[in-house]
Structure formats: C-alpha cells, structure tokens
Amino acid sequence: MKTLASTKQFTLRYVPKHVIPPVAARYLGSPVHPIRPKIFHMYATRDRNTLWWRVSVKPIQGFRRVVRSWCARRARLAFRQALKDRGFDAEGRRMRSESSGEGGSTPERNDDYIHGSLEIVVQPQSVQEDMTVVQTDMHHLVDVLIEKTKAPLKNDDNQKNNNPRKKKTKE
C-alpha cells in the first residue's frame, strides 16, 4: 500500500486494488485452518465496487489493549462520519438523497463510489487528542482521499492527449 496522506494522529495508506488484510491472509494461507472456508467465501463474494478499509493500531502497541481498542473505535467513528458528511456511506458508495425518489445507495456511475483498499494507521498522538481534533483530522484525510482517488482518472486522460515527451508531427 502507498501512503496517501498523513497527520500527527493518522496515516492513510491506499491502493486502488482490493487487498486482503494480513489477518485474513494468514487464515487463507493455512489450508487446514477451520475458518479458512468462511474467510475464503467472504472475500470471494465481497463487493468489488466498494472501499475496503480497516484501522491499524500497530504504532500504539505499547499501550494497553483498552487504549488501542478505544483509539481504533474513535478512528472508525470519525472516518464513517467524515464519509457521511461528504455524501458517502460507510463502504464508500455515494448516498442518494431521499428527494430523488430512489432509496438506497446504489451508484449510477464509476465516480459515485470510492473503491480500493484503505488502511488507517493510528499514531500515538491520537491517544492524547480530543474527539473534535480526531474528527477534524479525519475530515481532512477523507478530503485528500476523495481528491486523490478522483484525480488519476482525470490526469490519465490529460496525459494521453498532452504528453510533453511525445514528439509532435507536422501535418
């Protein structure tokens, strides 16, 4: 995964492809593990048009378990809220307004959802911060995520047409 953005409290690592998390990969790697079939089925049938995201507390392993789970819960809550404030559901799909007459959050176009895999890494500074600061940081990071996931589509089209290295031929 590639680091997309970072603040004092969080680091976002993103890749446009869907990546199976390390814990699930551990179970899938063992052919005799009892929950391997369940994990295999879960990832084989998982929607590929959504954002697969997870929270990692590896940098704060020195803290007690209750603190790590509290930080992870705050990060998940702030991330879901930031997505909701920008019109996305918890899986990165664009939510339709109730006034449009259609319920649900089914996307119409490719730009109606964020897809790929995202890891939110909680930094030790997050333990000391207030929830409002956590939410502010997460709002900023979600803005960066939305901007970066939409930008490559536009830039790829521009680069094909305006490649400065390509020699121009006279007509």
Automatic annotation (TrEMBL):
Biased composition (Basic and acidic residues): 89-99, 150-159
Region (Disordered): 89-112, 150-171
Highest taxon of the lineage: Eukaryota
Protein name per UniProt: Uncharacterized protein
Species in which this protein is naturally found: Aspergillus nanangensis
